[in-house]
Amino acid sequence: MRVPYKWLQKYIKVSLEPEELAEKLTMAGLTVDVVETLDPGFSGVVVGQVIALNPHPYADNLLICQIDIGSHKVQLVTGAPNVSKGQMVAVALKGSKLPGGQEIDHVSFRGIASEGMLCSAQELGINTSLVSPEDREGIISLPADSVPGTDVTAALGLDDIVLVLDLTPNRADCLSIINVAREVAAITGTPLQLPKFTTRETGQKAADLINIEIQASDLCARYVARIVQGVHIGSSPAWLQACLRAAGIRPINNIVDITNFIMLEMGQPLHAFDYDCLRQQQIVVRRSKGGEKLTTLDEIERELDPEMLLIADAAGPVAIAGVMGGLDTEVTAATANILIEAAHFDAASVRRTSQRLGLRSESSMRFGRGVDIEGAAAAADRAAQLMLELAGGQVAQGKVDCYVRPYQPVNIDLRPERVNYLLGTGLTPAVMKKTLERLHLPVRLQGQPPVLTVKVPAYRGDITQEIDLVEEIARLYGYDKIPVTLPGNITAREKRTLAQRREEAGREAAAASGLTEIITYSFIGPQILDQLQLPIDHPWRRTVKIRNPLREDQSLMRPSLLPGLLGVAVHSAGHRVMPLAVYELGRVFIPSGELLPQEMLRLAGLVMGNNERGWDWPAGEMDFFYLKGIVTNILSRLRLGDITWEGIAEHPFLHPGRQAAIKAGETILGYLGELHPDVLTAMDLPERACVFELDWESVTGAMPSKTDYRPVPRFPAVERDLAVVVAAEFTAAAVSEVIKGAGGTILQDHKLFDAYQGHPVPEGYKSLAYSLFFQHPQRTLTDVEVNISIERIKTALKKKLQAVLRQQ
Amino acid sequence: MLNKIKIIHQAALEKIEMAADSKELESLRVQYLGKKGELTRVLRGMGTLVPEERPQVGRLANQVRQELEKALQAAKAALGRRERAAKLAEETIDVTLPGRPLNRGYRHPIQQILNEVENIFIGLGFDVAEGPEVESDYYNFEALNLPKLHPARDMQDTFYISEEVLLRTHTSPVQVRAMEIRCPELPIRLIAPGKVYRRDNEDATHSPMFQQVEGLLVDKRVTFGDLKGTLMVFIKRMFGEQFQVRFRPSYFPFTEPSAEVDMSCVNCDGSGCRVCSHTGWLEILGCGMVHPKVLAMSGYDPEKVSGYAFGMGVERLAMLKYGIDDLRLFYENDLRFLYQF
Number of residue pairs across A and B with CB atoms under 8 Å? Predict the structure, then answer.
């Protein structure tokens, strides 16, 4: 809401500077976003009236104008297409300065002297959306009542300041300059001066001229109509144009400008119909019948649905109630008789219609938030009187006021102790009464314990219950004066749950293992699922879909964290930020058949590129085993024992020979693997990358609930090496299994320290070398014991894996 | 005889001092103190002395022997030190060569700020609650005094999954769920951190996904003054004691009275700059007393209990704390950005 300072001053003589008032309004809950200076910063530009126009003798597209600038006449040459005799124009004479810094001088156009220039809105730094379309193409036309020789800044009302309010939705009342003035009065204690007027009625009886019927009384509680006959459509006087422009509305003609002025002044949206276009002098307020259409003022044909409220005449729709009027009944230059509509439409209905049609207007914005039903008649009266004054004609006698659901006055009881209880203050009932009275609310203080009974005026639709009055007192008293305290009564409740602590432990474990935490959007696009080579029936294809996404690539809730990781990989590769080693712990979304989808936490990571080489170390590829080491480390930090890795080929986005299921016992925790080359190609990734994804619930499910202590061995361990040659198809896990099974209790651990294929190992075989660690908890082992264990291992390897042993 | 011993003593000491290495010291030891050494030989000749002289010569010889042994030992130790020092000098490295890198991971700045905020409120006695990111219209709006077609729904442009299901626009539904579950337990004292979604195009200050921390306290006799106190403590712990805090009336459908909380600008200390749009103040959170309707819908009697609620954007806190000017950086996940935190 734009509040021009001069306009505000019509109703309240504030002595504060605009900035001071802005601060006070902000601290009382009407946030002032900007204090805007209208003056665009030109100087020396004066009003002139065109008294003669002649063609330029040597140039077809130029005109020579004789212009009266009050003190004398000047001659100017212009190329503007919209100059006409009698027109008021903005004249920049020698020495004038324009906002861009340009200084005007005498010039000559093809031999004809020009003593300055005629200015366009753009040259004067005026927002061109606030001038007529014709003026946008040429020079700016000034109001007809401008005085030649006076300063254009004043003639256009640009010597003003606007407070731009960012209103909260509850304060619909302040979409009216008068109601902002009420607020200013309450804050500053300055008296309010509301406009006084009487409507001079000399025409026929309004009731004889129009018949009004409200069929949808649930959606229209009141419909006031006034008729003004014999008006002359023309442009508005300077003061009215200035008010509207300062408020951000383009002046159109005197009738439309008056309806807009009243809307801004009093908060009541008005509509002016061309009375003669209303068929059979009939107005019907009803819901649309199926299949109706209406071309609105913006020249767009709208299809109306049966829930939309319409204004119709005897033949069909003429306006969409509270949203926009129809083109056919628009006030035009030919209009002589006006029907003024001041109605009250249901807020939710207007909001719904406005949303359905994608059509927002100053009117729908006000009706949608709530309009003062009691103010409708006064708004119609004031509009009729202003039309009489500015457009001539006669106001028909009386008005047609269909007030089908009259306003029920609201009386609210406010308990002073309730105010002090909620605010932590110690205000007396008398102070509270005075505070509310500053808002012009009638208050009675009575009873024991005392109660304040407040009569709420219709324009304060936001005050419906006691708590609303508590708020009024709090904001006018001043939030800064409410004493600062701290709540007591601390609970013994667990501050972070076990699940929350484990989640944080997971994040820390991943970071400590060399992965950097990322957070990606929870939504993805369908194309990534194709890039991942997922078949049509893949489970990830069943996603939770957003109905109204901003972009297609943000239209599905992610079924996996992988797409987000890949997005970061693409970004990193594009910016050559390598190597990349990242993780994310976040939710994925799976359709569930219930109202809400299933949300599951996942931990996923990606590595790509090489660890940098250095002066005494080589570059290290972040390959499958690098990432496997990281995941092993993470799981071991989370105290998961007995993780097994199983070669699989089920994930279409991973290399078929380089992917593993990660298992704890029989539970599959997730997968790890190298991205399929087709995925790399589809995503334009230059390097191989490895990824993993773990189901967090499965991981935490496998975490031990407590830590078991085992004694630290006191007796020395014996280390022996053992090398075996086995057929290449046997996995390292299979060999380990045999070693562990045969080693007996004294075999504490075994570690693979070398794996080799190629000469001299025969084709189809591989050589694996292990360090074996033997230890006994109660004594030092003898060589004999160790040898027996090794022999058992060797025998088992030979028998089960046909291994050939290479003695160390 | 005494003189002879003295001469040997003097000569031996000189030679020991001159010795260049441990080998030479060993041969000196043999030369003077060995079985056939000079001093030993002198002592063997004691038989030729008169008995009265013997004790005197014996004493001197022993004394000289001890002194020479001591000198030899000292010289040996000194030599050892010199040799080791020479060896260590050879082993000198260029300490300015880079160390071998360890791969460490960094925590996302938003997650760090979240942890910081959580820890401050845990210190103030709050617990941490969570809830679904895909929510029902009921919990996200209706139970918060925001019926369908309420004008205030425009304040939060919403992503919908269906007519009744949406992406939560704030973490307030977590509070409603907690009240429903815990009612009539008192006090309720929780914060609800998490991701929220609004249908805003990405720009320097907007993102369709961002993170919030909301808080709720419901108990007997909770006042607006308590709300002010709690948030002042929070802001001062988060940013520093030097900042001013002000409460400005505002409107949220689920709280009344409601306030926006501003702190003095972190950049210009309140004198006005680009960061604070020349106002000297930065808006950092919204808050208010829980609306009686919200309390009642969750099962509490608003006549018997009261409460306050507040909410803040984590990205905004992080931007102010670190001086970041573009919110998009948080979700672009560029390592050159993440490695700074």
Answer: 243
